[in-house]
Amino acid sequence: MKSPRDVEKTYPNHEFVEKLRRLADAIENGEKFEIQIAGERIYVPVRAEFSIEHEREGDSEEIEFQIKWTNN
Hints:
Amphi-Trp_dom; two-stranded antiparallel ribbon; alpha+beta; single chain
């Protein structure tokens, strides 16, 4: 079993765009998505669920593109 992890990594715009494009291509083609985040390679299965979350608190707003799955 993998250890718990909660990491947030900031990327320069061009790297973020590249990752989004690869994700969109994988979703469109029905393929798994692979990404490395803070030194760990993550394999997102085709069965993953995608959602978009919006949060607002005071003057701060946030949009999160979320990808969730369980490892069976």
